[in-house]
Amino acid sequence: MTLINIAEICPSTRTLGPGQRFVIWVQGCCFNCRGCVSPEWIPQKQATEIDPQKLANYILSIPGTEGLTVSGGEPMLQASALSELFHNLRQQRDISIICFTGFTLTQLQAQNNPTIDQILTLIDVLIDGQYLPELNDNQGWRGSSNQVVHFLTSRHLPEASLFTQRQRDVEIHLRPNEALMVGVPPLNFSNHFKTAIDTATK
Ligand code: SF4
Fold first, then answer.
1. 146 pLDDT band (50/70/90 cuts)?
2. Which protein residue has the closest C-alpha to ligand 1 atom 1?
3. Candidates 37, 70, 130, 147: which one to mutate for ligand 1, based on the most atoms within 8 Å of Cβ?
4. Rounded CA gap, 123 and 20, in Å?
5. pLDDT of 153-163, one tens digit each?
6. Helix-strand-coil split of the chain, %, nearest 5
7. Which residues form the domain of 76?
8. Number of separate domains in the chain
9. What's one GO MF term for it (predicted)?
């Protein structure tokens, strides 16, 4: 059993894929995209390590969970632990799995790595490729238009257009001492949000 090294979770959101979803952001990325929305999750360091079986049970204990979205960080650096998580979930319930990666699908397939091949059989939708800010077209659940949405199963084909054309939105989840932004943010969202907060607190 390999532990999953997690930067952050959100137990329930509607902004990162169809339906109500649990979200995991893994810690550690091998890329360094300009304009990365989560640079604090790039360092490959130990964050919160969790047993995949226990995490699967927790995900399925959240009322109304329809799917899991995995982002980061780079999920494919933890393919073994995530594969175990996905397998545990699917053994218990046929929920949707969406995964972001900075690798292209072609690069992943070219590795001829049985663990990568295994995880690809468990993912419904893979959103691939590094983030390129100059190709951010301000729509959909992908960060920039070079990223390809691969429907590896037919589960989300009826909602296919949402992945590339949906009007973006985010949820702000308040914690005791911080706020977590969940979703692919609209262009200039951080500036607009800061202005709104400054205005409200004057
Ligand atoms: S692949 Fe994702 S997490 Fe990694 S640097 Fe690029 S945008 Fe950031």
1. very high
2. 102
3. 130
4. 17
5. 999 999 999 99
6. 35, 20, 45
7. 4-200
8. 1
9. ribonucleoside-diphosphate reductase activity, thioredoxin disulfide as acceptor
Q: Could you read off the pLDDT of 93-119 as tens digits, one per residue?
A: 999 999 999 999 999 999 999 999 999
């393919």: which residue's tokens?
Answer: 79
| CATH (domain of 68) | 3.20.20
Q: Which H helix or E strand runs over 115?
A: helix 114-122
Cβ(130) – ligand 1 distance below 6 Å: yes
What's the number of CA atoms in the CB half-sphere (13 Å) around residue 150? 18
Write the DSSP symbol of residue 186: P
Between CA 76 and CA 112 the distance in angstroms is 14
Helix (H, G, I), strand (E, B) or coil at 26: strand
What is the Cα 71 distance to its own chain's centre?
Answer: 3
Amino acid letter, 8: E
- Whole-angstrom distance, CA of residue 136 vs CA of residue 164: 11
Ligand 1 contact via 38 beta carbon (within 6 Å): yes
